[in-house]
Write a structure and sequence with these properties.
The chain is of the alpha/beta class and 252 residues long. The chain has one domain: Alpha-Beta Complex (Spore Coat Polysaccharide Biosynthesis Protein SpsA, Chain A), CATH 3.90.550. The protein has eight helices and nine strands. Residues 4-117 form the Glycosyltransferase 2-like domain.
Length: 252
């Protein structure tokens, strides 16, 4: 089972090193690792070049060029990917342990599995050892989508064949293209979706969606649009989606 892992980055020199190290320590997996840079000017490209020049580099391919935001970059990665399964690791995130990709690959040994996902820890941006929120995803049920449920997108792995049929991220969304894609995937009645009940990714707080009040409002508007476009629900689902986050601040 071959996995393609995609990291989109832009001026990420302060965190990308940890991400690369996290990928380097993954055990016993056939991995294609793609780095898609948006034309960074802060030393990100030099960092990638150093990693790519290592004798045993984890980087399979990388490119740096202007793009139309993170979702455009991720689509470029999907287009370049050749693995059986595609996943994403953002440039300020790390895997929770060294066997994450090994366990993901094992899920897809069953040919009926379309996707798998797990749990996520949010850690403080300036203290990655301290957990701010814990996102326990729980088992997938299509009915939960109407109650605002979604799996943590950074933990989601999907067969590349699904992208070939249904397409990648809709770049008309600037913040919620991942939510739209998840709704599109899970409402398409995939044959089998597996939940791994463990933390797969540790994600730093302070991302695009909650970086400002304006972004929070824009995200809500885009989430509502995604719900309506995918015929999942409306305001009720949106309210439940936001309320469900409150439990993530309670210790597990």
């Amino acid at each position: 089972m071959n996995l393609s892992l995609i990291t989109a980055c832009y001026n990420s020199a302060s965190t990308l090193g940890e991400t690369l190290e996290s990928v380097r320590f993954q055990r016993d997996v056939s991995l294609e690792y793609l780095l898609i840079d948006g034309g960074s000017s802060d030393g990100t490209c030099a960092l990638i070049q150093r990693e790519a020049s290592r004798q045993l580099t984890v980087v399979s391919r990388w490119l740096s060029e202007p793009d139309d935001g993170i979702y455009d970059a991720l689509n470029k990665g999907i287009h370049l990917a050749t693995g059986d399964v595609v996943g994403f690791l953002h440039a300020d995130d790390v895997f929770a342990h060294e066997c994450v990709l090994q366990r993901v690959a094992a899920c897809f040994e069953d040919p009926s599995v379309t996707a798998c996902y797990g749990d996520l820890e949010y850690v403080w941006r300036n203290d990655s050892a301290s957990v701010a929120r814990y996102w326990r995803a729980g088992e997938f049920d299509v009915g939960r989508l109407r109650r605002g449920w979604m799996p943590p997108h950074p933990t989601l792995y999907v067969r590349r064949a699904w992208y070939e049929i249904h397409g990648g991220f809709d770049v008309s969304y600037k913040i919620s293209a991942d939510y739209d894609l998840v709704l599109r995937l899970l409402s398409s009645r995939p044959e089998k979706v597996i939940y791994l009940p463990e933390v797969l990714v540790r994600m730093r707080t302070g991302g695009l969606s909650n970086g400002s009040l304006g972004n929070i409002l824009r995200k809500s508007a885009e989430d509502y649009r995604a719900l309506r476009t995918n015929q999942i629900g409306g305001w009720g689902a949106l309210v439940w989606k936001n309320l469900s986050k409150l439990g993530q601040f309670v210790s597990r």
